[in-house]
Amino acid sequence: MSSVQTIDQRKQAAFEHARAGRFPEAAAALQSVLKDAPRDVGALLLLGDVQHTAGRQQDASRAYTAALQALQLAGGQVPDAFRGGVQRAQARLGEYASGYEAFIEQELPKAARSSRFDQSVDILLGKSRIYLQQPTKYYFPELPQIQFYDPADFDWVPALEAKTPEIQRELRGVLADHSAFRPYLERVDSQPNVKSHALVGNDDWSAFYLWKDGERVEENCARCPVTAAAFENIPLDRLAGQAPSVLFSLLKPGAHIPPHHGLINTRLICHLPLLVPGPAWLRVGAKVHHWQEGKVCIFDDSVEHEAKNDADQTRVVLLFDIWRPELSAQERQEVAKFLGAIASYSGEKVVSGN
Predict the structure, then answer these.
(1) Dihedrals φ, ψ of 269, to 5°?
(2) Helix residue spans in the chain (DSSP H)
(3) With 0-12 CB in 10 A as exposed, 13-18 as middle and 19+ as buried, what is 96?
(4) Which tens digit of pLDDT belongs to each residue from 180-225?
(5) 32 and 175 in one domain?
(6) Whole-prediction pTM value?
(7) Sign of the alpha-carbon dihedral angle for 151, 153, 158, 160
(8) Which of the chain's termini has less CB crowding within 10 Å, N or C?
(9) Strands 305-309 and 280-284, sheet pairing
(10) DSSP state, 46?
């Protein structure tokens, strides 16, 4: 007798046990099948059904989950013979998850949870995933994984926010000159661009620079003297010929900056929202922030992030980059010298582009 026939016979016996209400015997027969054929989708689905009917929700959940995983490992296609069972498994897993979430809510109400603990619960429930720093060019180890920083922890924030009305006035003067802004992602025809997307060379996302790649743009600073002077006491990440960049960042109505990671993780990106005419948001990792005029937000752009202007008018923020506060003075000097040496050797700026 072949092993396939033996497996089929055991599956048939399990089915007959289940039909007769002998659930422990049915489960034992199916466990015997799965010992020899651990990815047998039919056996896993039937085991889930047996355990569900017997009121063993946790065991049913494990069997249904294993069945769906086995299908994915086999290519993801659902054979017609399993379609009903798969749909039943998915529906029941959804019910289990809802019940589990309701239990946790009863024991630990969401409204009473701390922010970080609430994130951990969402990850456990599968409502969120783990987002980590993944800079595309330079990674500095052992830095905390923080998506949004608390502006209250930065002593320069109140003074900058207080200048919002004056900076807004200077911005309005720049906006009156339609030629002042240029695409944030400029097209460089002499360089290959295999990751090109719709915003390259597109003024839906555009910029007016006060500093660009570490160089002060004197003409633009002269047009916005209050804005330029506001950075005298802010710890911009100064990298010769590369950083900082300080700019009015403009996002037209409906424009969407797709998910991406920044270049390095030794800096933080800061926004001072100046024009927020309606719903507009920034997602960093699992958190979504809605801009408010005059309220600074600070985030780690080496974590996956995206943004969208859902309003019917233009959104503008004052965007700039600062050193991560966790870096010591020595580490900042080392990073600046190192990235400068790389740029000198390769002829390419490490902190350039997005």
Answers:
(1) -100, 135
(2) 3-19, 23-36, 41-53, 57-73, 80-107, 115-124, 157-162, 164-175, 218-223, 225-229, 329-346
(3) middle
(4) 999 998 776 655 554 556 777 778 999 999 999 999 999 999 999 9
(5) no
(6) 0.81
(7) negative
(8) N
(9) antiparallel
(10) H
CA atoms within 13 A on the CB side of 135: 20
Nearest to 327 by CA among 255, 251, 237, 261: 237
Residue 329's SS3 state is: helix
Q: Cis (ω within 30 of 0) for the bond into 244? A: yes
The reply to whether 24 falls in a domain is yes
Q: What CATH number should be reported for the domain holding residue 239?
A: 2.60.120.330
Q: What is the pLDDT of residues 92-148, one digit of tens each?
A: 999 999 999 999 999 999 999 998 999 999 998 888 999 999 999 999 999 999 999
CA torsion sign for 199, 288, 264, 335 is: positive
Quick check: helix, strand or coil at residue 182?
strand
Are 317 and 167 a contacting pair, CB within 8 Å? no
Cβ contacts of 156 within 8 Å, gap of 6 or more: 233, 234, 235
**Domain extent at residue 308:** 148-346
